[in-house]
Amino acid sequence: MELQLSTIVFLFLSTTVLLAATTTGQQTSDDIDTEFIRQSCESTRYPDTCFASLSNYSSAVQHDSGRLARIAIHVSLSNATHMANYVSNISRDAADKNNNITRESAAISDCSSLFEDAVDEIKKSRTEMKRLGLTGESVKFQLSNVQTWMSAALTNEDTCTDGFQKVDDGNMKADVCDRVAAVKRVTSNALALVNSYAR
Ligand SMILES: *[C@@H]1O[C@H](CO)[C@@H](O)[C@H](O)[C@H]1NC(C)=O
Ligand SMILES: *[C@@H]1O[C@H](CO)[C@@H](O)[C@H](O)[C@H]1NC(C)=O
Ligand SMILES: *[C@@H]1O[C@H](CO)[C@@H](O)[C@H](O)[C@H]1NC(C)=O
Ligand SMILES: *[C@@H]1O[C@H](CO)[C@@H](O)[C@H](O)[C@H]1NC(C)=O
């Protein structure tokens, strides 16, 4: 009876220790995964934005800089798509309000087309990243395509901001330019992570 009790106590204790060890093990591997993302983000221009936007994907990234680059492009695509929809909406509203063309409404309409193009370029990049090594072309060549398209997307975003230079300061200009600046950080980081992977 005494033996049985101590066996039960032993089993209980070892189960507890095992569970604790398993939990700690998971936390540690999660920490290592996010640490990999933190370190990779150091090579980008906006490391804080990089970590904040990608750390949730640590279990999918593992320690693979190719996967990280692919996920960064995915995040950048959804970010730019949201912005394209936003600019398209305010462009439509601006066109409804004044049927004359002001510098502001012209800048917004240009920005809307530029973001549509940026979204197309990021989409092409996403597709290329999915078929790395599967097309018969060299991975190096495919990555250089992605670098070209992501740079073009970034240039389009820059050009949107440039279009507001001659627009008088106002809420609309400030709002759009702030949002574009935030999107550019995400796009720039995705490009930097592709560059690191291509190196
Ligand atoms: C990351 O996950 C947390 C918890 O699920 C969520 O609150 C947060 O918005 C997510 N962040 C991003 C950038 O997706
Ligand atoms: C754009 O407008 C549509 C329809 O009014 C709305 O459903 C959508 O949420 C808007 N998108 C953005 C990003 O503001
Ligand atoms: C254009 O529209 C704005 C806003 O409705 C108005 O203030 C302005 O007078 C208009 N300009 C011309 C040239 O019609
Ligand atoms: C994406 O873009 C918006 C601008 O519309 C920005 O405010 C937001 O924080 C960006 N970042 C991410 C990770 O979605």
From TrEMBL:
Residues 1-20 form the signal peptide. Residues 32-193 form the Pectinesterase inhibitor domain. SMART domains: PMEI (SM00856). It comes from the Eukaryota. Keywords: Signal. One of its GO terms (molecular function) is enzyme inhibitor activity. This is Pectinesterase inhibitor domain-containing protein. It comes from Lactuca saligna. The lineage of its organism: Eukaryota, Viridiplantae, Streptophyta, Embryophyta, Tracheophyta.
